[in-house]
Every structure is written in structure tokens, then in C-alpha cells.
């Protein structure tokens, strides 16, 4: 399982990006995106901003849960009070490329275990998945608020702080 | 993306570079891209180019190769082949939501099939006339549009008239043969050479009956690939032209949601020449023309013999085809050699023997030359299978002459044939179909639908007892049988229902209703059938019923105006999603019939897109991406369907100032994927076109291809205006890479010319560009080799945009104004 986490500003500009793998079930916390298709993550996340723009008005929640899917990449979103979006791309299957899911890959995915369930039966709306990602988002939000309280931080400025990155990584290790 | 300000626009540096560096001397027709050099039709052949033009269905495209290539602008309002004789079709009395016209392709594709069976002497007469394919070749193009209005009475007695009604003439057993690949590889030039050298026979040889059967995705792919390669060659000659006019053409095409001509071709071939199958009756003959000529020594006996052959002899269709179709007898009178009084007498005799379904066709048997007075070329046939078109392309590509090999016929022959088709349709086919519809409706459907029918279907489902009488004859007996055991009529061993059984009759009824465009009746019937087929575990039938239920429901909803939409339609529309899902699952997974699965999803997606409601675009895109995920299409179909998904998303514009609910970014994403796939296939022109719309969708350029400037509201106004760019570094790089790859391929196609060209200015420009491109190691691979190294730990700063920008300072400096 690989994750790509991006914080997107109000002008569709990335403020922070981070890739990591799962630390649960013996994962080593390293992302396993295919090298030649890594730019796809940005494209996928960027394209799902369309959905974010639409569903953010549907309810008062900041955690929008699972909003979009591209092949077997699942997008989760958390929207902050300042209209900065946290987007988490989740690729449950480590063996298949994120942009090419075929029947054969679906077949291998069926055998490869994702936790207790295979990735074909991976359910992005399952309470456990939603809860874990929510906890991750909330913790990142906590750190985020502290970062932007920095008086020198301007709107839509990139976050370069290594401390922030470290905190996000710690949250990822803890929850995902 | 915020609303882009349109301040003093400057040219995007990239575009500027392209335009200034491409000042190559134009070469006529030559300059083939390296990948095309192995294709056998490199010579620019007039007859071939006209073929390409006519089959990608462009009106008004002359034989000159310049105008023959499909461009987005021309193709927008062109769905129908010029055909020379076709009239503008009616939109079937409904407001056209989408200008794409794919709906009309769809409606017209479900046309009654008429088998043609000609005696040997008839074919001989026609062959002397210059039609090696015999009577079938002569009459085929005239069926695609019946002249004048055709009025059809629907199940509730209201009559509707259509101007674009057509029928399909096929050989009697055309749809039966599974499309086989030819014995030798098609691509090798020697094979084609041999076929041409053979002389007169190869026509028959190269047009065997199996070629007239469609239903093979691979063949469609190859055909579209041929057309694409041809378009590449055409554009290869005049690149600067292309850049000038296509920038906005592509943009306009994108916003109007019109499909590319290649997609239309793909779609049409997908629906052309459906193979005969037990589970659907569209390609089963509705009628059969039995033709004899006036040269026949024993006409009546021959007619009887042919008639019997279709019933019991070797021409009998398989037992799952209902054999009770109409027989229509045609007497071909040879005006040039035979006596009309004798023929008239014979015709009277025929009428006495065979009833009213007879026609006297007066043709001249002389061979017509194109230079003759009142000679007319045989119109092209629209609905041919992919294989047939491929064969034709191959044949023309190998022929030595530039002359159009399409045979000609006299003006009088044309009007005689038109009259035949019209009479056949109006006086025989439609009345007999209407009669069958009414009869089946009364005998089978209303019983099934009424109280007792419901009870029967209940008892059928829940009671294990009951007699399964197989020896039933006639629809009524079949119905009683269906009241019996669970698998009453379904022969699960051979996998079909007997044509007399109630289920098969209902399916035929619904198919007839679709052919006569009574979609409401069809939709409700398919819906009933779904349950029956599901109970019998007849998966192919089940998938077919689901597919057609969805299609008929959507078409029904299309053809109604807003006020007429009833609640029942609405509730059915909600079920469409599930039906499509079931149909594709049953076809692909249970029946291993990917062709039908592709047809279901492509047609369903198109129809949903045409609905134009708020969710239509999203749903269409969903089915489109399902096609890609299931790998139902090959390498040619992938980018075409990606383009289509992009267009589906693009058609959803969103509301208000902020374009709430729009799908611009998604559309752009899919367009990027399409560009990538086009490049993988070396289709530079298509890639370039899509790249234009990518820039436009991402808001980098406006509709005219001019770079949009950065929004400078928060920065100081004194700063130099920058062209707008994507904020995500890797996305920007990737698009940049694609752009460079497009330019590089175009240059590569012209490369040798550039070196030869004596002008110093141009050579330096060229060298500059190519050097720069060579310096980048990842130019050919396209895909993120340039991406930063993988992050091992978290303290590595990923994805720095500066890093990549540093690699190409040259590029920015010299081309920026």
C-alpha cells in the first residue's frame, strides 16, 4: 500500500507533498509507486480537485472521506477552514502500476492480501479505513495550524519546514 | 483555477518556437514518417484517398488528397457519408441535444436486415454490367437510405415518419461466419500484389462472405489505425498549415463535444455488420430477396428451388433463426437484350404463383464507363464491416491506376433500384413487420404482461412441477410451455431458445420494435425478458436483454420532449446504470464476449453523455473508464476512448462564476492520458491536437492558442507578466515533455528534409531545436525518467521544480519574447 499526500492551496498550487508507504502489517513505510508513473499521482490528485470543489458544499464536514477514484487509486480529502485541501491518494495494491489496472492485475490483486481483504474487495468507505485516514488528517491539521500560525507564513506559501515533514511522517506511521 | 485575466496576450514560448522553426519546404504527399514506411500504400493514390475520405464520412470532400483528410472542423456536422445520393436525414422529430450525431448513427444501425439470394444467371447479368460482386454489390448501397419518408405505425397505432430509414442488404449467410483472419499476414506487400495480379477473380476472392461479418474489435482497430496513419501522412506534408488552423479547431471541437472523426468511424464500425447470434435478432433476416433474371430458361422452377433452399436445403439458416421471414421475388429484366413483353408476362405469372411480394426490376446490362453520358457511380456503402473496408483499402492501395475502380451504372438503373428498395420497404417489409409486431404483442406479450402472465411467471419461478413440453409449435404453445418447468424453453446444452418459444418471440418482438423505432415498447419488453433469462440462467440472452433495455430506455427518453417524460420512464432511467453494469459483466465475464461488452459500454456511455443532464457526463466517463479498465479496446481504441472521456467531462461546464461542479481538470487529465497514448502509437497529429486542448483545459492557453498570463493580483503590478503555468511541478514537466516529444517527432518526420535544405536560417533553427532535444535523455521515453529520485527518507525535499527548470535554461531564454 502506498500513499501520496498533498496539501493544495487556494490556487490549485501544491504547498506540501509527501509520499509514504504503510507501516501497518509489517510495512516498511516506503512508497512503492512505479518510478515511470509517479507523475500520475499529481495528475490524479489535481483532477480530483474538481470533485472536491463540488462536494465541499454538500455538508458541513471538514473530512470529506473518499471522494474519487482513478483505477485503483483512491482519493480522500480533508478541507481546512482556509480552503486549503489535504488530499491523500491511496493505492492499496503495491504490485500493480497505479495507472494500469487490467483484468490480469485484478487477478493478482485478488490473491495479494490487503490486510484481511484483497484489493479488489478493498472498500474505501469501510469504517476502519475511513477512521484511520480521518485520524491522520486530524493530526496533520493540528500540525498545519501550528505551522501557519508562523507570522512569516503567507497565504499559498510552500511549507518547507523539516519539522512539519517529520510530524506528518510520524502521523502517517502512527495511523496508516 | 481562478478566472484567467485576458491581459495583453503573448505567444506561448513553446508555440512560438514550433512555428518559427518549421519553415520546411513542403513536399507533396511524400515525407512519410518513419513508422509509415512499411505500409504498402505510400504512393499517394487518388482512388485510395477518396476512399479514405468517403469512409471517414466527410461531405463535400473531393478526390483531391488535400481535402480528403478528416479535420475536426469539417467533421463536426458530418456523420453521414456523402454517398452522392443521400439526403439530409431527419433528427427523428426530436431536438438534437448533442451535435455529435452519434445518436443518429446508433438509431440507423439497428436496421432491418434483408438477405439477398440471386440465381446464377442474375449474378451473371450483373457481372457483365461491371459488378463482380453480383446482385448484392449492386443493390447494397441503395438500402442504406430509403428514398422519401417512411411511415411506421407503432404499437398504440400512432404513425411516425422517418426520412432516414434504411435497410441492410446482406448475403443470406453473411452474419454466420465468424470473422476469420485471412490466411496470410495482411501487412506484407507481396500478398496484396499477388491478389491484384490475379486479374478478375480476386474481387470475389478478396470479398468473401466472411469479410462481410463484423464484430471483431481487432479488425476495427486495424482499420482505424489505417485511417489514422493516412491522416498522419496527409498532415505530414503541410505541418505549418496544421498548426495554424488546428489550434482553434481542436479547441472548438472539444467544447462542442463533437467526437473526432476517427471515433465516429470506430463507433460506426462497432455497430456495422453485426454477426448473427442466437441472443439477438438484429442481424437475422427480416426478409429475403430471391432474384432471377429474364435470361433464365425456367424461371418459376428456379424461384421455387431457391425458395426451398432457404427452407430446407443447404441455405437454411441455423435452427435458432426464425425461418418464417418474408420472401420477396425480384425479376431482373435485361433491357438491352431481352423482350419486355416476355418479361411482363413472366412477371404476371410470378404474381399468380407467389402473391404480391414481387417486383420487376428493369436494368440495362451494358457495361458502363465513367465517361458515358448519364453514368452514375455506385454510391459507397456506409455500413460495411471493418474487414471489408480493410480489404478494399488494400486492394486500392495496390492497384496501379489512379482511376476510381467503383463501377458505374446508368441513371435509369439507379432510379429503378431506388424504386425497388422503396417498394420493398414500404409495401412489404414494414407492413409485415408491423403485422408480426401486432400479432406477437397480442398473442405473447399481453398475455405475459397481464394478470395470468404474472401468475405464470410466478408459478414458473416458484413451482418445481409442471411439464416441460418441448414439442411445441407456434408462439402460443411455446407460451404454455414456458408456464411449465423452470428451464422450459432454454436449451442449456446448445445455449439457445428455439425460435418458437415465448422468450425468443418476445426478444424478436422487442428487436423489431427497435428497428421500427418504437423504443417504448422495446424497453418494456426487454425489461420483462430480463427476469425470464435470469431465471433460466441464459447469460448471453440475459446480457443482451440488459443491454438493449438500457439502450432502448435511453433512446426513448431522448426522443421525447420534456413534457412527455412520464414517471415510469424516469424510474427506468434510474435503473439504467445497473442494467449496463449487469450487461457488461455478463458479456465480459460470463460469456467471454468482449465485443458485445464493448458495444454495450460504448453505446450506453454515448447515450448517457447525450442526455446532457448534470450527471450524464460523469456517468459517461465512468463507463468509458470501465472500458479501459476491462481492456476491451486495443491500442487504437485506448486514446480514442480517453479523448471521449475527456470530452464527457468537458461537457460538464459547471455553474456560476466559480464553475461549481465543472470537470475541467478531469477532462484535462484524460486529455493528457490520450496525448501520451497517441505518442506511444506515433500518431503525432492526434497527439498535437489533443495537446492543444490540454493547454486550453488547464487554462494555459485560451481558445486561440495564445498563452494566458499569470494572475498578478497579489504580486506587484510592475513585475513582468509571466505566462500562466501549472503549479504542480511534475505535471508541468510531463506536459512539457509531451510537447517536446510532439515537436521532436514532427521534426524527425521531416528530418532529412531539414538537412538537405540549403537555407542557412532554417538549418540553424532546426539544429538548435534538435540539439536541445537530444540533450534531454528522457525525450523518447516520455515518462518521468526526469522525475526526481525516489524519496528514501522524509528529509529529502521531493519534486523541486527548480531542478528540472535548470536543465533547460536555453529553451526559456531563446524562445521567450
Automatic annotation (TrEMBL), chain A:
SUPFAM superfamilies: SNARE-like. GO terms for cellular component: cytoplasm. InterPro entries: Longin-like_dom_sf (IPR011012), Sedlin (IPR006722). It holds the Pfam family Sedlin_N. GO terms for biological process: endoplasmic reticulum to Golgi vesicle-mediated transport. Coiled coil: none annotated. PANTHER family: TRAFFICKING PROTEIN PARTICLE COMPLEX SUBUNIT 2. This is Trafficking protein-like protein particle complex subunit 2. It comes from Rhizodiscina lignyota.
UniProtKB/TrEMBL annotation, chain B:
Residues 465-474 have a biased composition (Polar residues). Residues 52-73, 172-193, 464-485, 786-817 are annotated as: Disordered. This is Transport protein particle subunit trs85-2. Coiled coil: none annotated. Pfam families: TRAPPC-Trs85. The lineage of its organism: Eukaryota, Fungi, Dikarya, Ascomycota, Pezizomycotina. GO terms for cellular component: TRAPPIII protein complex. Residues 803-817 have a biased composition (Basic and acidic residues).
Amino acid at each position: 500500500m502506498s500513499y501520496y499526500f498533498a496539501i493544495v492551496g487556494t490556487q490549485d498550487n501544491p504547498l506540501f507533498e509527501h509520499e509514504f508507504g504503510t507501516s501497518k502489517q509489517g510495512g516498511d513505510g516506503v512508497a512503492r509507486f512505479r518510478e515511470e508513473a509517479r507523475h500520475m499521482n499529481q495528475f490524479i490528485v489535481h483532477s480530483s480537485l474538481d470533485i472536491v470543489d463540488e462536494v465541499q458544499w454538500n455538508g458541513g464536514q471538514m473530512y470529506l472521506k473518499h471522494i474519487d477514484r482513478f483505477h485503483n487509486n483512491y482519493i480522500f480529502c480533508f478541507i481546512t477552514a482556509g480552503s486549503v485541501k489535504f488530499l491523500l491518494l491511496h493505492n492499496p495494491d503495491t504490485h500493480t502500476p497505479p495507472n494500469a489496472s487490467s483484468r490480469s492485475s485484478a487477478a493478482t490483486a485478488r490473491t495479494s492480501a490487503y490486510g484481511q481483504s484483497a484489493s479488489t474487495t478493498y472498500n474505501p468507505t469501510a469504517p476502519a479505513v475511513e477512521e484511520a485516514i480521518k485520524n491522520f488528517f486530524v493530526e496533520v491539521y493540528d500540525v498545519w495550524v501550528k505551522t501557519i500560525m508562523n507570522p512569516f507564513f503567507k497565504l499559498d506559501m510552500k511549507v518547507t519546514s523539516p519539522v512539519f515533514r517529520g510530524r506528518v511522517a510520524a502521523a502517517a506511521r502512527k495511523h496508516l | 483555477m481562478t478566472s484567467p485575466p485576458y491581459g495583453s496576450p503573448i505567444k506561448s514560448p513553446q508555440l512560438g518556437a514550433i512555428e518559427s522553426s518549421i519553415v520546411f519546404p513542403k513536399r507533396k504527399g511524400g515525407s512519410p514518417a518513419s513508422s509509415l514506411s512499411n505500409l504498402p500504400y505510400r504512393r499517394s493514390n487518388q482512388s485510395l484517398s477518396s476512399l479514405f475520405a468517403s469512409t471517414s464520412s466527410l461531405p463535400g470532400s473531393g478526390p483531391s488528397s488535400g481535402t480528403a483528410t478528416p479535420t475536426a472542423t469539417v467533421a463536426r456536422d458530418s456523420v453521414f457519408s456523402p454517398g452522392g445520393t443521400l439526403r439530409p436525414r431527419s433528427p427523428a422529430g426530436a431536438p438534437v441535444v448533442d451535435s455529435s450525431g452519434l445518436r443518429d448513427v446508433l438509431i440507423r444501425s439497428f436496421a432491418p436486415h434483408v438477405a439477398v439470394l440471386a440465381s446464377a444467371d442474375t449474378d451473371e447479368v450483373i457481372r457483365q454490367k461491371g459488378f463482380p460482386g453480383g446482385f448484392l454489390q449492386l443493390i447494397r448501397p441503395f438500402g442504406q437510405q430509403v428514398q422519401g419518408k417512411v411511415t411506421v405505425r407503432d404499437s398504440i397505432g400512432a404513425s411516425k415518419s422517418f426520412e432516414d430509414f434504411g435497410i441492410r442488404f446482406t448475403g443470406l449467410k453473411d452474419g454466420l461466419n465468424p470473422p476469420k483472419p485471412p490466411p496470410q499476414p495482411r501487412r506484407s506487400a507481396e500478398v496484396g500484389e499477388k491478389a491484384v495480379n490475379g486479374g478478375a477473380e480476386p474481387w470475389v476472392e478478396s470479398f468473401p462472405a466472411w469479410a462481410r461479418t463484423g464484430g471483431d474489435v481487432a479488425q476495427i482497430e486495424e482499420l482505424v489505425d489505417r485511417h489514422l496513419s493516412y491522416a498522419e501522412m496527409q498532415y505530414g506534408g503541410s505541418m505549418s498549415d496544421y498548426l495554424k488552423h488546428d489550434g482553434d479547431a481542436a479547441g472548438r471541437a472539444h467544447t462542442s463535444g463533437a467526437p473526432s472523426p476517427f471515433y465516429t468511424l470506430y463507433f460506426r464500425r462497432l455497430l456495422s455488420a453485426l454477426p448473427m447470434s442466437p441472443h439477438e435478432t438484429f442481424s437475422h433476416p427480416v426478409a429475403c430477396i430471391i432474384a432471377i433474371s429474364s435470361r433464365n430458361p425456367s424461371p418459376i422452377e428456379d424461384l421455387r428451388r431457391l425458395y426451398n433452399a432457404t427452407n430446407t436445403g443447404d441455405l437454411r439458416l441455423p435452427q435458432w433463426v426464425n425461418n418464417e421471414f418474408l420472401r420477396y421475388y425480384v425479376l431482373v429484366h435485361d433491357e438491352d437484350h431481352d423482350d419486355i413483353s416476355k418479361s411482363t408476362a413472366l412477371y404476371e405469372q410470378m404474381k399468380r404463383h407467389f402473391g404480391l411480394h414481387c417486383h420487376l426490376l428493369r436494368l440495362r446490362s451494358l457495361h458502363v464507363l465513367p465517361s458515358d453520358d448519364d453514368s452514375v457511380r455506385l454510391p459507397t456503402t456506409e455500413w460495411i464491416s471493418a474487414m471489408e473496408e480493410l480489404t478494399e483499402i488494400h486492394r486500392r492501395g495496390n492497384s496501379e491506376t489512379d482511376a476510381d475502380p467503383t463501377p458505374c451504372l446508368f441513371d435509369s438503373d439507379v432510379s429503378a433500384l431506388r424504386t425497388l428498395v422503396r417498394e420493398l420497404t414500404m409495401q412489404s417489409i414494414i407492413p409485415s413487420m408491423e403485422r408480426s409486431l401486432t400479432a406477437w404483442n397480442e398473442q405473447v406479450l399481453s398475455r405475459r404482461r397481464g394478470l395470468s402472465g404474472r401468475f405464470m411467471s410466478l408459478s414458473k419461478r416458484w413451482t418445481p412441477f409442471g411439464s416441460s413440453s418441448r414439442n411445441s409449435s407456434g408462439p402460443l404453445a411455446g407460451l404454455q410451455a414456458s408456464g411449465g418447468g423452470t428451464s422450459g424453453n432454454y436449451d442449456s446444452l446448445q445455449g439457445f431458445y428455439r425460435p418458437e418459444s415465448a422468450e425468443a418471440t418476445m426478444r424478436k418482438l422487442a428487436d423489431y420494435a427497435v428497428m421500427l423505432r418504437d423504443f417504448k415498447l422495446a424497453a418494456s419488453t426487454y425489461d420483462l425478458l430480463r427476469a425470464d433469462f435470469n431465471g433460466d440462467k441464459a447469460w448471453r440472452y440475459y446480457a443482451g436483454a440488459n443491454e438493449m433495455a438500457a439502450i432502448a430506455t435511453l433512446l426513448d427518453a431522448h426522443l421525447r420532449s420534456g413534457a412527455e417524460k412520464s414517471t415510469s420512464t424516469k424510474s427506468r432511467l434510474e435503473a439504467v446504470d445497473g442494467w449496463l453494469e449487469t450487461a457488461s459483466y455478463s458479456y465480459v465475464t460470463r460469456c467471454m464476449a468482449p465485443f458485445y461488452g464493448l458495444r454495450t459500454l460504448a453505446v450506453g456511455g454515448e447515450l448517457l453523455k447525450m442526455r446532457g443532464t448534470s450527471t450524464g457526463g460523469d456517468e459517461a466517463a465512468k463507463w468509458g473508464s470501465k472500458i479501459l479498465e476491462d481492456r476491451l479496446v486495443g491500442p487504437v481504441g485506448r486514446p480514442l476512448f480517453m479523448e471521449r472521456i475527456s470530452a464527457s467531462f468537458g461537457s460538464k461546464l459547471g455553474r456560476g462564476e466559480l464553475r461549481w461542479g465543472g470537470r475541467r481538470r478531469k477532462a484535462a487529465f484524460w486529455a493528457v492520458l490520450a496525448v501520451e497514448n497517441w505518442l506511444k502509437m506515433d500518431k503525432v497529429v492526434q497527439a498535437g491536437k489533443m495537446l492543444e486542448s490540454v493547454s486550453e483545459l488547464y487554462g494555459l492557453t485560451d481558445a486561440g492558442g495564445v498563452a494566458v498570463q499569470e494572475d498578478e493580483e497579489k504580486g506587484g503590478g510592475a513585475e513582468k507578466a509571466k505566462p500562466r503555468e501549472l503549479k504542480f511541478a511534475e505535471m508541468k514537466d510531463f506536459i512539457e515533455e509531451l510537447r517536446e516529444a510532439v515537436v521532436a517527432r514532427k521534426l524527425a518526420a521531416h528530418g532529412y528534409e531539414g538537412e538537405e535544405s540549403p537555407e542557412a536560417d532554417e538549418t540553424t533553427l532546426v539544429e538548435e531545436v534538435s540539439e536541445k532535444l537530444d540533450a534531454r535523455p528522457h525525450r523518447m521515453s516520455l515518462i518521468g525518467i526526469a522525475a526526481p529520485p525516489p524519496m528514501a527518507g522524509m528529509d529529502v525535499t521531493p519534486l523541486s521544480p527548480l531542478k528540472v527548470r535548470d536543465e533547460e535554461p536555453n529553451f526559456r531564454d531563446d524562445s521567450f519574447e
